[in-house]
Specification:
PspA_VIPP1; PspA/IM30 family protein; mainly alpha; about 90% helix; coiled coil
Amino acid sequence: MGILKRISTMVKADVHELLDKAENPISLLNQYMRELEEQVGKAKDALGQQLYLERRQEQLVAEAAAVVAKRARQAELAVAKNDDAIAKIALQEKLQQEAKLKLYEEQYAAMKQQTAALKEQIDILLEKYNELANKRFVLLSRAHAAKAQQQNQAVLATFDADGAVKGFNRVEEYVQKLEAQAAAGAYFVPAAPAASHELQEAVERELAKLKESK
């Protein structure tokens, strides 16, 4: 049952106080998580062994009780047959088995108490383990957010806002010049000439009108 002392020592630690005093809470949590995971594994093995021994002891109690009952019946049958010698032998073994049964029952009761105590300590251990796991998750999230904020601050610190504004202004002026040049070019574009065939027909009609007026 040495596992109980080790687990009890760990789970009684004030996790929050340790985290507050630590320079690197994440490293401390990682260390505690590794230790607790190791203890959880040991506690699981210890509980399995304890339950095995308890069941073996329970079997011894049942076997001893069965022998006691059997020897009691044998003694009764021997007395019914007036066979005192057999009755004495049966009663002697019955008394011996009753002594064993009493011892086995006391041992079994002690084992059950030990099992209950171990389960209680394991429950506390698992509670602390979950508490640390949640605390670690929160700290990791906060650390990542803080690092991202620091990176953003570093970018902003090196960012030349005035230079960027001047650069955009120069681009805007360039675009405005292009727009003005395009508008000026459109002003000087000559109208599209009429088709040569239509122009010749119009000339012929005007010539005919001029001749008729003469």
